[in-house]
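Per your request, structure below.
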């Protein structure tokens, strides 16, 4: 499934919404999906999802998930740039 992102079901979307409603301080989430991991970024009321088929071993913390989200969302960029974008997203916090 190279380059193809599996569809998000309504149940999964509802689960993401409920999870972020219970974890107001969090901005990123990683959850298993068929063949990889869904990486979810909360930006205001919008949930931005990307999929990673790599075998991730992420700590359940924003600091660990943020760079993985940017690396999966922008695969043509170097991972160092993804890490910087992840740190910047965490530093901005709830200001946006």
């Amino acid at each position: 499934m190279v380059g193809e992102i599996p569809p998000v079901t309504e149940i999964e979307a509802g689960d993401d919404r409920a999870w972020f409603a219970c974890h107001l301080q969090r901005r990123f989430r990683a959850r298993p999906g068929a063949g990889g991991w869904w990486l979810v970024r909360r930006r205001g009321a919008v949930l931005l999802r990307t999929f990673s088929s790599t075998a991730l071993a992420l700590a359940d913390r924003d600091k660990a998930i943020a760079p993985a989200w940017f690396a999966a969302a922008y695969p043509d960029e170097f991972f160092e740039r993804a890490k910087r974008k992840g740190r910047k997203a965490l530093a901005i916090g709830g200001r946006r």
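The radius of gyration is 13 Å.

Regards,
D.
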